[in-house]
Amino acid sequence: MSSALASGYLRQEFPHTRWSVVLAATGRPSPASRAALEHICRGYWYPLYAFVRRSGHSPHDAQDLTQEFFRLLLEKRWLATADREKGRLRTFLITAIKHFMAKEWRRASAQRRGGGVTFVSIDAGDAETRYAAEPAAQLATDEIFDRQWAMTLLGLTLARLESEFAQANKAREYSVLKSCLAAERGTIDYDALAAQLGHSPGAARVAAHRLRKRFRDIYREEVADTLGDDAVLEAEVRHLAQALGRA
Questions:
Q1: For the whole model, what pTM was predicted?
Q2: Which DSSP string do the residues of 6-50 spell out, in sequence order?
């Protein structure tokens, strides 16, 4: 199942956020909750990998530890210990992996040497390329994790946005307009966009505005999917914006 299809399936299947559905099923796991958790694991492995690398582990060990963490997360049902009051997937995962590294990793390493099971597919080359692009080393491990968590959410947002344009047969329009997402207000050259799109400058301005608005809406949906309570959405969006601003 492609990531786009999986995302669409989960949004149809679960009326609430992925995280709240998983939390609600800790007492009696279901196929739906396991599907949600597996999707979460596959989508959010990199922030945890970056955390393990910044903690001092080699690329090979970081890959193994991240794989084993997710395997045990499922097998040992660590979600049963999740704090429902905090309601943040981000908080739960960083707390859980710290516990894992402090208490479990030696035993997990011995199990891997005996033939562990791969759960999350990690592209070693891609992981290290992304890690090498991390900001200056003065960022603490928790700051690296939060920054990469925010980057992951941005990546998921962009993937959904591009998929929507492709499904509407507007892939070329997205290719032209996507540079607007990173542009500062007042710096977009609408005449140049209009020439590329074959539109008037006014139509190009409207198209760019709609793209930016849809990006914001999708991003907020992706953030909300990691929360158990929408009441904390604004605080989480602010926290992630601060994390992205660190360098």
A1: 0.81
A2: HHHHHHHH-SS-HHHHHHHTSSS--HHHHHHHHHHHHHSHHHHHH
